[in-house]
Amino acid sequence: MRWSIAAVALSLVAVASAGFIPTGQRAVGDIKYADKDFLMKQKFFFEVLRNIQLPLMFEEYLPYTKTWITDESKYINYNEVTEFFDNFKLGFLTKGEIFTIYNLTYMKQTYLLFTFFYNSADWDTFYKNVVWARENVNEGMFIYALTMAVFQRPDLKGFVLPPIYEIYPYYFFNTDMIHKAMFKKMYEPKFGFTSNGKYNVVYSNYTAVYPIEYMGEDKLSYFTEDIGLNSYYYYFMMDYPIFMGTDRLNLFKDRRGEQYLYMYQQLLARYYLERQANFLQPLGEFPWDQPIKTGYWPKLSYWNGVPFNGRKDYYTIPKSNYFKFDLLKAYEERIRQVIDLGTYTMPDGTVIDFRKPESIDYLGNMINSNPDSLNDDYFKNIEILTRIAFSGSDFYFTGSKVWPSSLMHFETSLRDPLFYQLYFKIMGFYWHFKDLLPRYTFDELNFKGVEIKNVAFDKLVTYFEYYDSDISNIIPMGFSSDKFWDFSVLARQKRINHKPFSYTMDVVSEFAGKGVVRMYMGPKMYDLQQLQHLRKYFFQVDQYLYDFVAGKNTIVRSSRDYFWSVKDRTSYVELYKKIMTAYKGGEQFPLDMSEAHCGFPDRLLLPKGLPSGFEMTFYFVITPYYAPKDQQLSSYDFSYSCGVGSGSRFLDSLPLGFPLDRDIDFTYFFTKNMYYKNVMVYHFDEMKMNETY
After folding, report:
1. Collapsing DSSP states into helix, strand and coil, what is residue 256?
2. E strand spans, 152-192
3. Consecutive sets of 10 residues in the chain, 693 residues long: mean pLDDT of each?
4. Residue 28's CB: how many other CB atoms inside 10 A?
5. Contact indicator for 404, 411 with CB cutoff of 8 Å
6. Which residues contact 403 (CB under 8 A, 6 or more apart)?
7. What is the pLDDT of residue 241?
8. How, if at all, do strands 674-683 and 460-470 pair?
9. 415: Cα within 13 Å, side-chain hemisphere
10. According to the model, what pLDDT value does residue 157 have?
11. Which residues, other chains included, contact 264 with Cβ-Cβ below 8 Å and sequence gap of 6+?
12. Within its chain, how far is the Cα of 365 from the centroid?
């Protein structure tokens, strides 16, 4: 499966060592503002995605809904476009049917649709083709391909799409809430219009309110079903499509395989902390051929009314699919064999040394089976087959209908407890590879002349709050388009957040110059030697460059400045109105990453505390500044781009997760440039979670 794409990727979810710059750290003079042409195009994206399941209501676009642009001179690579034309005429997934990228036929069709968008030579051709596809291509496939096109086309750098949970709320909000909104609109004519004010609200619960306990996993529904967390994962997977490769995307510059694995390691570490805060046991081993204890019924439905496919407790796959167990074991053995042997010989005779730290990139690409894999015909795709096998579906099914489970959508994968069990198993490859690397030496760990004397935290407090999301796209709008933007239905849901906090670090240094500070949080350690086992559960919270002076250094760092966290998105209708205000000559529209999709939700940095305090261990390490191959931010404009494919997103050249990513020698590990601090996280909240309305 080696489909490639001529693109320069421009957006990547910031993971761990990536160089995302919080908006609050930018000087006013650094902010750019959108011009009239930019705003016209920005306006188009919001209009074309409005009520995606209904015909377009904007008259200016209707003339372009009947046919695509056929002029060969209007395309960059007409051969790829011709392939799309030919396949579409043979038959694509029809509108109204359920779409999932985890189906070979749909995946290829999505790729072809993307190339159709990407190869449009100019804006006029692009937007007319998008309008045609909006009316003639399956809704889910259209959203997927358009999102990739906006992220990847160089001429669309800086453009913002509405949050995915507001484009397609069906994947983020339970069916009962959607029914409430639909019925209110049916019986209350004013419902949804601005003049109705605060009454345009429906309350949304999490799945845990229903009488299914999910073996205790329901305690985590506020976290696993969080729209910010699920959006974060969705955008990461969209920025790194499985069928896009380095040959035409420059992804090799971004250590693609390493970032892919580290993203999952960090996601699992963060999940582990939330489990621990709710008194749940750690994840255990997951044999391929044993019944799955934890069932899952997502309480979601597709827009056509079909409920998501569920899974009973102690689920086993049908006997007719037992051969998939053999395939999974075979794929697992092939990867493990390469790690154990320490080398892999390419078909051309090139030998790859798997005892070098940088070979983590090869391993990640092998597991992901993207076009950068060493040999995807041999290593196959254990990730896809795992999802398919336990979803009761088939990647190669070519029939007209597929009934996916939550595991078969990026938007919903994190809701299912099985997701974490599966990836905990897959991440065993990562830790096996890391444990066979040489331990870091004392000189690699130590920063001569630098000592962390103390770290003092503000009080860490979590709480639940209400948050409103615009779900107007679920309501069929039987009125003219000029009223579309006076209509907004809000889903109000309780969610976890934390109060802003700071810490003060006192450092004594004999060294004057640049150093890099890394901050991790993990389970409380009663004995520092527990770190050998617990290091895989440490979550990287922050990383930054600091200019040290000789003598005492006092660093005060706010949680609002953490390098990879992003704030809440502006709602669909509100953001559209801001675009139109600027378009009409009013307040300017900033290009400042304030609507960035490439980051982890700030409010999920801390796990839920306890009234009496939930104790965790924070770990700090200061290292010398090891300049990356390409200086950070040197090859992209960080004011409105995440810089994927630029190679200059990294603060330094150290491995992601340093120094907790390798086996530890405790005879010299604890150097003076490291510091451990046990800190309590408190939870003060008068709201009762999962209250039924």
Report:
1. helix
2. none
3. 34 35 44 90 95 91 94 96 96 94 92 96 97 97 95 87 95 92 82 72 74 72 96 92 72 78 97 96 87 90 92 86 89 96 92 96 91 87 89 60 90 96 96 97 97 98 95 78 75 95 97 96 94 96 96 96 86 91 91 77 96 97 86 50 57 93 97 97 75 44
4. 7
5. no
6. 98, 306, 309, 392, 393
7. 87
8. parallel
9. 30
10. 83
11. 423, 426, 427, 430
12. 18
Residue 618: strand pairing partners: 521, 677
Cα pseudo-dihedral 403, 404, 405, 410, rounded to 10 = -160
Distance CA 196, CA 178 (A): 19
Tokens 């001529």, located at residue: 6
Tell me the C-alpha distance between 519 and 540, whole Å: 6
Cα-based distances in Å from 54 to 411, 515, 598: 21, 54, 29
Instruction: Evaluate whether 2 touches 637 at the Cβ level (below 8 Å).
Output: no
Written as one letter, the residue type at 253 is K
In angstroms, rounded to a whole number, what is the distance separating the alpha carbons of residues 84 and 86?
6
Tokens of 290: 């044993």
Q: What pTM was estimated for this model as a whole?
A: 0.92
Residues 552/645, Cβ–Cβ less than 8 Å:
no
Query: Taken in order 250, 253, 257, 263, is the CA torsion positive or negative?
Result: negative
HSE-up (13 A, CA, CB side) for residue 38: 16
Question: CA–CA separation, 298 vs 414, rounded Å?
Answer: 11
Q: Give me the numbers of helices (H) and strands (E) for the chain, helices first please.
A: 20, 16
Q: If DSSP codes are grouped into helix, strand and coil, which group holds residue 24? A: helix
Instruction: Tokens for 493, please give them.
Output: 């849901």
Dump strand ranges (E) for 577-688: 590-591, 600-601, 614-624, 674-683
Tokens representing residue 89 in the block: 């005429």
| Residue 62 token pair | 């209707």
| Number of neighbouring beta carbons within 10 Å of residue 347 | 9
**Which two three-digit tokens encode residue 647?**
């190679």
Helix (H, G, I), strand (E, B) or coil at 473: helix
* DSSP state at residue 30: G
